[in-house]
């Protein structure tokens, strides 16, 4: 009987519901022959040459409509290469698109692919395209992963032209931080190409194929951290110059001229940010050589992430506005009121408008002017007094119901204008322990529907998420506002009363925060909350990310069981 094992507990439910926008590899023109890789050579591509025995196993002869595990229906083959194939498929159980890598169980790399997929699934970092299932069944091995519909490959972004300094900064910062986190867990990518990096509609970068892409192709490296660091440097170089930093054309990009060596990005293209140019060269440095004599090469993703964080902040470019049409002066403003217009022949005609009357110069005129002025002053005074009396009367009338028109804490200061709701760009599960609970349900907490919610499973024995090692810091929801904004308040409807929670915010310079230390600003004190948690801040806080952090859950039904969650989140500016 075939053996079937999943990548992690309930890993099939850890989903994103979006397909990849571009194929990972190109197929041949007729779509039937084995795909030929057209990618450029870099140090990570030259390792792990395949022996003839590795290619002996043929790619399984499957077709559209074939169903795996009575669940995953194959739709379209996007890669057929070196004994394995990659497909776009549909998870009929959860009704979502997924991606599937598929190879025979007797393929020489089948064991390593399964091991890589399971390790990647256990990481659970939302900055990576998640592995949802890793299965051996019916003489087949297949790996199921997320399929992201609203994301764009870096290959397509670079085809449109080089990035501006802010976008390139976000790219290298987010990718370096994500890979540093992966290497801390012992995971390497080794195939970090432009096709492996995706940018979502909210500007967040996600990396696909962690460990799995290299395992599928038999790629290994003696120094995996150095290989991934140089790959990030190549991505930054391409983002700044729209050129590939080697003497070959790759990924739709032109390589550097042969024989001239590695030129700094600011020497290849005018206007490149000097600091980012140096960062790229420090990441690409070989054998200790670097374009900057003052700075040491970056040899690990963590060193690269710290070097990027130490740079002065690069702000996004100012939006450009269309200039309004030139203001046209009227005839009166041009000083021609009452003047006779000039005829085509140059002769003046009779004035059309009569000249204004002369001012009153006699004593009678002066007296009349003084009288009119006095009457106006008296009328204004009387009107002001009546208006004040009316307002006072209204205040006294409303006082009987227990409300006043002024804030007793602020004296007679004006009441601030009501806050406006802010649009929420997305929500992700807070996973400080590295693995998620119900990641696919996180958007239900911000969809505006009271009947949907992010709900935890039941935990037994302990209110602090079962006292599990990977739940020591709790869980919750991270709200993404799409950009840095002023936040003046929020309302959170809890799935159940009695949860111990707090609300924190990230610094305005934070990028994809994932740990408690990334949320230094405390917006509420931690404590047990009821069915909702509402707060109006004394002073607005500038941030993009807000964390609703839950540390303990309330009892759920039978004794010893605990469960919680969040039904709806709204934020005001």
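^ Assign residues to that structure.
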């Amino acid at each position: 009987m075939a053996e079937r094992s999943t990548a992690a507990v309930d890993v099939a439910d850890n989903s994103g519901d979006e397909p990849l926008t571009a194929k990972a590899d190109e197929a041949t023109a007729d779509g039937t022959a084995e795909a030929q890789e057209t990618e450029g050579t870099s140090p990570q591509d030259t390792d792990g040459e395949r022996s003839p025995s590795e290619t002996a196993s043929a790619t399984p002869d499957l077709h559209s409509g074939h169903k795996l595990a009575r669940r995953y229906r194959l739709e379209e083959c996007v890669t057929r290469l070196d004994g394995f194939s990659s497909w776009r498929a549909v998870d009929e159980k959860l009704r979502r698109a997924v991606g599937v890598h598929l190879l025979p169980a007797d393929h020489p790399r089948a064991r390593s692919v399964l091991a890589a997929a399971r390790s990647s699934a256990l990481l659970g970092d939302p900055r990576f395209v998640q592995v949802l299932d890793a299965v051996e069944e019916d003489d087949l091995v297949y790996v199921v992963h997320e399929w992201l519909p609203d994301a764009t490959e870096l290959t397509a972004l670079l085809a449109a032209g080089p990035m501006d300094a802010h976008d390139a900064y976000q790219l290298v910062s987010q990718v370096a931080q994500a890979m540093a986190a992966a290497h801390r867990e012992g995971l390497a990518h080794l195939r970090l190409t432009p096709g492996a990096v995706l940018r979502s509609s909210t500007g967040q970068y996600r990396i696909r194929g962690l460990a799995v892409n290299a395992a599928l192709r038999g790629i290994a490296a003696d120094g995996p951290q150095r290989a991934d660091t140089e790959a990030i440097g190549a991505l930054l170089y391409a983002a700044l110059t729209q050129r590939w930093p080697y003497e070959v054309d790759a990924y739709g990009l032109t390589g550097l001229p042969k024989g001239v060596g590695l030129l700094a990005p600011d020497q290849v293209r005018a206007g490149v940010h000097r600091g980012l140019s140096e960062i790229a060269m420090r990441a690409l440095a070989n054998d200790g050589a670097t374009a900057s004599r003052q700075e040491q090469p970056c040899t690990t993703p963590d060193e690269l992430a710290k070097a990027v964080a130490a740079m002065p902040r690069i702000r996004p470019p100012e939006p450009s506005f269309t200039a309004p049409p030139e203001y046209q002066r009227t005839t009166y403003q041009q000083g021609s009121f009452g003047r006779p217009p000039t005829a085509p022949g140059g002769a003046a005609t009779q004035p059309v408008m009569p000249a204004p009357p002369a001012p009153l110069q006699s004593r009678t005129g002066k007296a009349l002017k003084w009288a009119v002025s006095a009457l106006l002053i008296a009328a204004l005074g009387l009107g002001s007094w009546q208006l004040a009396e009316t307002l006072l009367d209204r205040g006294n009338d409303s006082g009987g119901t227990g409300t006043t028109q002024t804030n007793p804490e602020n004296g007679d200061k004006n009441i601030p204008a009501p806050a406006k709701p802010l649009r929420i760009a997305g929500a992700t599960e807070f996973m400080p322990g590295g693995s998620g609970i119900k990641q696919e349900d996180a958007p239900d907490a911000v969809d505006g529907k009271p009947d949907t919610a992010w709900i935890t499973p039941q935990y037994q024995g302990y209110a602090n998420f079962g006292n599990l090692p990977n739940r020591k810091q709790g869980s919750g929801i991270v709200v993404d506002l799409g950009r840095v904004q002023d936040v003046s308040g929020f309302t959170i409807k809890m799935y159940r009363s009695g949860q111990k929670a707090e609300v924190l915010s990230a610094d305005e310079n934070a990028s994809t925060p994932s740990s408690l230390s990334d949320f230094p600003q405390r917006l509420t004190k931690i404590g047990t909350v009821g069915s909702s948690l509402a707060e109006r801040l004394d002073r607005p806080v500038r941030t993009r990310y807000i964390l609703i952090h839950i540390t303990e859950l309330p009892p759920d039904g039978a004794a010893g069981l605990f469960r919680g969650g969040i039904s709806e989140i709204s934020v005001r500016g």
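The radius of gyration is 33 Å.
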